[in-house]
């Protein structure tokens, strides 16, 4: 689980933020960005020695001075379940490693094209017994042998 996705899942929930200097903030997370800058609402600030307290309506904290966040376990469990749901949905659409747009390496529309006379797929050196020179494979979507040299688009479809 990535920290930013966990923070995004915790929006609107209570949390504790401790800074590198020991000061703590308790409040509800309003927003966070890619630099881990956070905005809290209904904030209780505690001094580093723990003897002074302040209440503020809203607080912006820069991410580079934050030591750690303390978030409820239920939020972590909820974020993990949501991430698994998204991952499963991505696999069904053909996403994931090598999926989508023609499948893994060389499937679908011929990958990079036949190139120098080899079979359709990733291109490469000529195969034994195959025609030497340019245009042996289908290229990327063109007719067989039609200008497919080195993975070009080939002739336009008619």
Automatic annotation (TrEMBL):
UniProt keyword list: mRNA processing, mRNA splicing, Nucleus, Ribonucleoprotein, RNA-binding, Spliceosome
GO cellular component, one term: spliceosomal complex
BP GO terms, sorted: mRNA splicing, via spliceosome; nuclear-transcribed mRNA catabolic process
Keyword Nucleus annotated: yes
Pfam families found in the cross-reference section: LSM
Gene3D superfamilies given in the database record: 2.30.30.100
Start-end of Gly residues biased regions: 92-158
Family matches, as SUPFAM superfamilies: Sm-like ribonucleoproteins
Function, in words: Binds specifically to the 3'-terminal U-tract of U6 snRNA.
Family per record: Belongs to the snRNP Sm proteins family.
Identification of the protein by name: LSM complex subunit LSM4
UniProt gene name: LSM4
